[in-house]
Automatic annotation (TrEMBL):
InterPro entries, sorted: MetI-like, MetI-like_sf
Membrane topology recorded in Swiss-Prot or TrEMBL: Multi-pass membrane protein
Location(s) in or outside the cell: Cell membrane
Membrane among keywords: yes
Subcellular location, principal: membrane
This protein's name: ABC transporter permease
Ranges of residues in domain ABC transmembrane type-1: 93-277
Domain of life from the UniProt record: Bacteria
Region (Disordered): 1-29
Gene3D superfamilies hit by this protein: MetI-like (1.10.3720.10)
Regions crossing the membrane: 42-59, 101-121, 128-153, 159-181, 211-233, 253-277
Feature: compositional bias, Basic and acidic residues: 13-26
Annotated family: Belongs to the binding-protein-dependent transport system permease family.
Length: 287
């Protein structure tokens, strides 16, 4: 039987072609720079506001709707210039910010403490958690007048309403995180003789934090919404009071200006939670 060998020249050309292809294709794809990623994300996030602003301007310039319903962007800017930049709303902004901060902090502490207790003591969860769910089902706009009647027109009613909205996502996330432990990891901790404290510190706490931090975004916005809701019902100072007052006078531009201020406040609160997540130790908060 005769075997015919492939010509040497053909083999050489094939190897050279493969070598050229390897040189043309880099082994590692270039990693985008942080500045490039930031610019890309910023551009993507500006698309929606740009489209909304353009549609808003076109709608008002063509008189498609009444200015009482949708004021022109220029009128809203004039309201921001007069009331916000002019310092008229300073006391109202500080009152809403103070109420939001206290509501978030109190809701965070109560949520983590309460969630931890109910995660480790099943009888407490059985006795208390159904009533927490029942209270959450109450429309806050309906119970806010009661707190105003009981506690007056100060900060207390809006802090209570804001705390109730910030509290629930934190307590639910804390319970879920502390109880969601991989059985293999738990058995490993037991096999190496880890104490309950070490198990909590190195296993349950990092797992719980991976649940709690996403809930903080909801909690901080909930605190803001709760405070504004209570202020709309009745308070001495606050952006919710400004919305009620300006709407009663038919000043739609000022109402839209307040909504823009609240949107910016929500973005700032989300940024603060993101920064807090990044600066926390990796051993406590998984990145």
């Amino acid at each position: 039987m005769t075997v015919t060998a492939e010509p040497t020249s053909t083999l050489d050309e094939t190897e050279k072609s493969r070598g050229r292809n390897r040189k043309d294709q880099p082994d590692v794809l270039p990693t985008p720079s942080r500045a490039g990623i930031f610019a890309k994300n910023l551009g993507l996030r500006l698309i929606v506001p740009a489209v909304v602003l353009l549609a808003w301007w076109y709608t008002t310039s063509q008189d498609m709707v009444s200015p009482l319903i949708v004021p022109a962007p220029g009128d809203v800017w004039n309201a921001l210039d007069s009331y916000l930049l002019g310092g008229v709303w300073n006391e109202d902004i500080m009152s809403s910010a103070r109420g939001t901060l206290w509501s978030f902090v109190i809701g965070l502490v109560l949520g983590i403490v309460g969630g931890s207790i109910m995660a480790f003591i099943a009888s407490v969860k059985t006795a208390v958690y159904p009533y927490i769910l029942a209270f959450q089902a109450f429309p806050k706009i309906a119970v806010a007048p009661l707190f105003v009647v009981w506690l007056g027109y100060g900060d207390a009613p809006k802090i209570i309403i804001g705390t109730s909205l910030a509290f629930f996502p934190v307590i639910s996330a804390t319970m879920a995180g502390l109880l969601d432990v991989d059985p293999d990891e738990h058995n490993l901790m037991r096999s190496i003789g880890a104490s309950k404290r070490q198990e909590l510190r190195h296993l349950r706490l990092p797992r719980a934090m991976s649940y709690v931090f996403p809930a903080l975004d909801i909690a901080v916005v909930g605190a803001l919404l709760g405070v504004i809701t209570a202020e709309i019902v009745g308070t001495e100072y606050g952006l919710g009071r400004v919305i009620t007052e300006r709407a009663a006078y038919g000043d739609s531009a000022a109402v839209y200006a307040v909504l823009i201020v609240l949107a910016v406040a929500g973005a700032i609160l989300h940024l603060a939670v993101s920064i807090l997540h990044k600066v926390m130790p990796r051993s406590i908060v998984p990145k």
